[in-house]
Amino acid sequence: MKDMLIEERTAMEDVKISAKDVNVWYGDTHAIKDVSVEIKDKTVTAFIGPSGCGKSTFLRCINRMNDTIDICRVEGLITLDGQDIYDPKVDPVQLRAKVGMVFQKPNPFPKSIYDNVAYGPRIHGLARNKAELDEIVENSLRRAALWNEAKDRLQSPGTGLSGGQQQRLCIARAIATEPEVLLMDEPCSALDPIATAQVEELIDELRTSYSVIIVTHSMQQAARVSQRTAFFHLGSLVEYGETDRIFTNPVDPRTEAYITGRIG
Amino acid sequence: MSASWLLIVLIAISVAGYFLGRSRVMASVQGNSRQLHSLPNYYGLNVVMTTLVPALVLLIAWVLIQPMVAQNHAASMIPDDTYADQGALNLLMSDVRRIADGLDLAVKSGNMTVEQAKDIQTGTTDIRSRLGEVGVALGSDVDPAVLTAAQAYRGVTNTGRWLMTVAVLALAAAGFAWSYLRTSKDLRARNLVEHGVLALLVGAASIAILTTLGIVLSLIFNTIEFFKLYPALDFFTSLTWSPSFGGGSQLGILPLLWGTLYISLIALLVAVPIGLFAAIYLSEYASSKVRSIVKPLLEVLAGIPTIVYGLFALLTVGPLLVEIFGAGGFLGLGWMKGGTAVMTAGIVMGVMLIPFVSSLSDDIINAVPQSMRDGSYGLGATQSETIRQVILPAALPGIVGAILLAASRAIGETMIVVLGAGAAAKLSLNPFEAMTTVTAKIVSQLTGDADFASPEALVAFALGMTLFVITLGLNVFALYIVRKYREQYE
User: Fold this and answer.
1) Interface test with B, best of A64, A107, A111, A171 (most B CBs within 10 A)
2) Which residue of A44, B46, B72, B396 has the fewest C-beta atoms within 10 A of its own C-beta?
3) Within this chain, do residues B210 and B281 fall inside the same structural domain, yes or no?
């Protein structure tokens, strides 16, 4: 039943992000080799693969976070809604407002919970007055399932929250900027199982409005939250397809070896 | 034996002890060092430690204490009515030491026999000329009491020296024997040596602390002495500073304190923005190539001696400011009368503090985790938004600490003030007037030929103490701020 629903939806919706022959070098190291992939809208896509296989690097290409690393060089074509994101006309700062990112380790700013969430909206001028800003903050915290825990302590520092709450705060912060795509780089690796479950529930909920890409080391997590899965190995995209199909009937022997635990 | 010979003997004994201890333990296991608790070296070092350290401590203590004992003994020989006060006694005692040294010299050069030196008397011998022969010049003829005291002084010193030699060597021998006999394969020599190293480290740390304590104590005693001669209330509240060595001085600290704070304020107004902006550029914008060139260049500024900055103030900055703000100058304002002014010293001192502020702030900004920057960029913030809204707030406590440390350096600075700010103690708001600071006045009060017991000289210690309290307070406050907010982004 679930499978049918997904197939219906993916058939209906078009491609959000498309990458063609992407190559990335860190200095002399060839980190990403000829990766081509099409990521659909309103879908959770999981990137799996052993450490150092390039999945995080590829994720950081999608919002041009690699621009902040001097020695990093990106080649190939990546489009968001058909627009080349590496086109000189594109401002990487604007792009990052559209493509939000949540990091491996929760990194709330040393500000109050409110200011953490209001950071993006303030920078981009999304609220015309204080009441609107309050509303954005409340909605974002609600969507990140943090409102009930945080509503009485909005002015206390975000760094005072527990690890799982901090990560949900970071997600709320990313949502508040109203992105179209949400990139998550191992968002649960620093969290305990209960906090992980909360974040996974949240990701499933976010799928209704965003295209979510999640990098994860946990294959169970990929199977739980994603509809499509991409398997990276040694900088190449080995296999990409429906999550259920990848986990039950992988085509490539390397994918099978990885998901059955023989490599990685 | 003199102390230096004794030291050489001690070192020789301990070197021998090292090899003996080592070979004893090696012999006890028939050369199979795997059966030892520790590496063979540790057994040797343990013998060295036990031989050398107690003997050395005794030697140092003896060398320090013996002159005091000898002096007290000799002083008791001099009748009370020959001197009026402690100062006169001190003069007599220095005579005593000179004569005692002269007698030693005469014996050594063969001019006198040991017995002669012991039994010599003022009635029978002209001591002044006899000592003159060996090159010891005395100011006047020798008083019989002083000679007796000198002979007593010699006696105590000579006996003391023999006793010291015997005691130190006995202690070294005992230490050697004990540790040598204890040396066996089960002795935990490694742990013992490490305890010794620990004691050495603790000793080094306590010397640093004790020195500070000594400095503070010497300041405190002289300050108390000063306040006995000059009312503390006047010192802290009087608005005039006009020392006159003939008496009737007005010694109010307020004009000096005002000069200090005014110059420091201007220095910080120069140093903080420039240093902070330089730090932001270096840590956030500069490529690693630029950074590797610019940072050392900036830090060269920190290596320039402050007297050179003073010359720069006197010869370049002062005249330049006069040309701009002086009468008939560029702006035609006539505010500035001479090259030495608060502004001159403040600007140059600010330049001196730039590397201080920039280097500390640079370290602090670099310590802000990269994840903060990533988080901000990931939300679509520009680099400058990230710096203003995330990095600087996160680094602020550290930056405040750096500024406070820079302030305490500015307050303690002397040479730039002496050359750049003038010597007039004035309470004025005009930054183009000459003023002076606490430190500059400490120098001028102590470098004259004033009597050290006069309030005009002793005031320097009270000034120093005040300055010490202010800078200490600033440093403590800076450390408190840095510590209190440190974990915020960790």
Assistant:
1) A107
2) B72
3) no
* Residue B2 burial by Cβ neighbours in a 10 Å radius (0-12, 13-18, 19+): exposed
* Domains defined along chain A, listed by start: 2-107+180-259 (3.40.50.300)
Nearest Cα residue to B411 out of B194, B262, B208, B218: B262
CATH value at residue B377 = 1.10.3720.10
* A100:B381 CB<8 A: no
ipTM of predicted assembly, 2 dp? 0.86
Per the structure, the count of domains in chain B is 3
Q: For B330, which DSSP code?
A: S
Distance from CA of A213 to the nearest CA of B (A): 14
Q: Which of A93, A97, A109 faces B375 most closely, judged by CB atoms?
A: A109
| Facing A123 at nearest CB: one of B369, B381, B489 | B381
Q: Do A68 and B377 touch (CB under 8 A)?
A: yes
Q: Based on the domain organization, do B24 and B117 belong to the same domain?
A: yes
B207 and B282 housed in the same domain: no
- The DSSP H or E segment spanning B416 is helix B415-420
What is the pLDDT tens value at each position of chain B, 490 positions in all?
677 888 999 999 999 999 999 999 888 888 888 888 888 889 999 999 999 999 999 999 998 898 888 888 888 877 777 776 666 777 778 888 888 888 888 877 777 777 777 777 766 677 777 777 777 777 677 777 778 888 888 888 888 888 999 999 999 999 999 999 988 888 888 999 999 999 999 999 999 999 989 999 989 998 998 898 888 888 888 888 888 766 677 888 899 999 999 999 999 999 999 999 999 999 989 888 898 898 888 888 888 999 999 999 999 998 888 888 887 777 777 777 788 889 999 999 999 999 989 988 998 898 888 889 999 999 989 999 999 999 998 888 888 888 988 998 899 888 888 888 888 888 888 888 888 888 888 888 888 666 777 888 888 889 999 999 998 898 888 888 877 766 555 4
Nearest to A107 among B288, B375, B389 (CB): B375
Residue B200 and residue B253 in one domain: no
Chain B residues contacting A via beta carbons under 8 Å: 287-288, 369, 371-382, 385, 389-390, 393-394, 488-489
Half-sphere exposure of B200 toward its Cβ, with a 13 Å CA cutoff? 8
B393–A110 CB contact, under 8 Å: yes
Using CB atoms within 10 A of its CB, is residue B111 exposed (0-12), middle (13-18) or buried (19+)? middle
CB contact under 8 A, A110 and B378: no
Claim to verify: residue B154 and residue B221 sit in the same structural domain: no
Which residues of B are less than 8 Å from A111 in CB distance? 393
Do residue B390 and residue A98 have CB atoms under 8 angstroms apart? no
B41 Cβ contact list (under 8 Å, min separation 6): B22
CA distance B445 to B211: 24
Look up the domain containing B52 and give its range. 3-186
